[in-house]
Amino acid sequence: MPGSILIARGGVAEVATARQQPSAVQRWLRERCCARLQALRSGAVTLRDAEGERTVGAPDGPLGTFVVDVYDPSFWSAVAQSGDIAVGETFVAGKWSCSDLVGLLRLFVRDREVLLDLDGSLWAWPRRLLLRAWQGLRSNSRPGSERNIVDHYDLGDDLFAHFLDPSMTYSSAWFEHEGQSLADAQRSKLDRLCRLVDLQRGDRLLEIGTGWGSLALHAAGQCGARVTTTTISRNQFTRASERVRAAGLHERVQLLQSDYRDLDGTFDKLLSCEMVEAVGARFLPTYLKACAARLRPGGLLGLQAITIADRHYASALRAVDYIKRHVFPGSFIPSVRVLVETASEHTDLQLEHYEDFGLHYATTLQLWREQVLREPQPFLQRGGVGLVRAWEYYFAYCEAGFRERHIGVGHFRFRRAGG
Description:
Distance between the termini: 53 Å
CATH topology of the largest domain: Rossmann fold
């Protein structure tokens, strides 16, 4: 099984345009896939390949009909074997295209049982078992966490800088009004995070998950807090240190290159923005206990966390989807219930506030995707057309999930007992 992370490297020199004739086996698999896609109820897919054109699903469904051009008939065998993951892998490889990728993926999110059924045969079990074994090797132990972070965040600052706003904030923005620029919306988000924990001048703030330093810089520069921030990414530690020095905030911001499990000290406030998804379900109690242990009695914990609908949490935890395989190895998405109940069962943290703003993430992802497609040169130079398509699919896949409310993103405020 290939070990490459597709958003790190491409894999196709050019996208096919001529449709190839399928073999007898591929024709049979095509019929099998079409029969299962016929169960779509929220919309339809018109498939066009060398065999002709065929519409499956419900053309009168609320999402309408999406046209998919299949160029390489190996698409059918890949999807029959690997379902959701193969849909993404074959898109990156240029084996199919769709003019409305987000819309198509929204259809598959809304009728997700149909997509999950595509690889439901015995033929699919060997790879499914291999994927689960591979995911088990990506556990977020101390060395495992560092490896998982390197696989995504240390791909090269030039790639991230090309689609992120100037603050290099790689998390959902908060749009105060329609048409607000991404840079302004990210500042709005940073303001909201600081207000979430009522950050005051002189407060001792711990941040878990530095990123490129935007929140630490904002908390110290705009709010006057004394910030300690930690990351296990060597690259981000170096770049954030440079940015802190350039801003003249080195006396207010202390940067650490430490695992959250190895932190010590006591703080008034703690912020962690889209970090919890990287700890893994197994270590969620450990993470929350570490957060509580670092807070003074009565201290506030603010989390920005991606969440999944409660009813889908268990099945998503067991599955290895495209994101776990090719974007964020070792990751998981908690549900609101799991996050709150774990905090209650394992710590003295008490939930005071929760607010979901998932559609803001959909807009953030849309802007990132549009920027990559508008000016793809850095991605083309790094990994060719395949790398551009890998990032396009990653952003579109996630955007579809947020637009369908299958996943969300929320601000949580917990208070430690006492004080």
